[in-house]
């Protein structure tokens, strides 16, 4: 399946009847809280099978995944995934490796949040995105608010950083 920028892969609260393997592209995952705050909490990139929290057992989607660029997805029926998991013990290692990779990604993101200045954090995010964004600029993919959420600063600080870059 091909999704284009802005198209939704899954929505917060969906029953997760399917899992999805990201073949190419990039997704942002947001969560709408009861108080109305929308938070960008994850990025999905090639090689991942998602939703992560449903790799072993089903659970409704924790957030909404939206394509940031043209992306190719392999659709996996959840019932088939879980049946294979029960019948093939080697599948457990595949899932462990997927989760390990995501934990390492999150550790890198946390490291980026603890680097000294906001400008340094912005540079690290820019560098990471260049590996996955196929030439698209950070500001073409994310709003200033979303960039701020990823680097731990307010939108106004992102605005100032962007002005100082140019």
UniProtKB/TrEMBL annotation:
Report any Pfam family annotated for this entry. Answer: cNMP_binding
Domain (Cyclic nucleotide-binding) spans 1-75
UniProt GO molecular function: DNA-binding transcription factor activity; kinase activity
GO cellular component entries:
cytosol
- For whether the record's keyword set contains Kinase, the answer is yes
Asked if the Swiss-Prot or TrEMBL record annotates the protein with the keyword Iron, the reply is no
* Key words, A-Z: Activator, Kinase, Transferase
InterPro entries this protein is in? Answer: cNMP-bd_dom, cNMP-bd_dom_sf, Env_Response_Regulators, RmlC-like_jellyroll, WH_DNA-bd_sf
What is the official name of this protein in its record? cAMP-binding domain of CRP or a regulatory subunit of cAMP-dependent protein kinases
Q: Which organism is it from?
A: Paenibacillus typhae
């Amino acid at each position: 399946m091909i999704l284009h920028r802005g198209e939704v892969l899954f929505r917060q609260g969906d029953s997760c009847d399917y899992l999805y393997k990201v073949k190419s592209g990039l997704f942002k995952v947001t969560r709408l809280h009861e108080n109305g705050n929308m938070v960008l909490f994850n990025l999905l990139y090639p090689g991942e099978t998602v939703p992560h929290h449903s790799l072993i057992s089903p659970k409704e989607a924790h957030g909404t995944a939206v394509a940031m660029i043209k992306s190719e997805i392999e659709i996996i029926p959840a019932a088939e995934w879980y049946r294979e998991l029960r019948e093939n013990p080697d599948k457990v290692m595949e899932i462990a490796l997927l989760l390990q990779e995501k934990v390492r990604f999150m550790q890198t993101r946390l490291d980026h949040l603890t680097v000294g200045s906001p400008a340094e954090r912005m540079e690290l995010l820019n560098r990471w995105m260049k590996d996955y964004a196929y030439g698209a600029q950070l500001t073409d993919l994310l709003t200033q608010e979303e960039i701020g959420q990823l680097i731990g600063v307010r939108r106004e600080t992102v605005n100032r950083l962007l002005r100082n870059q140019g």
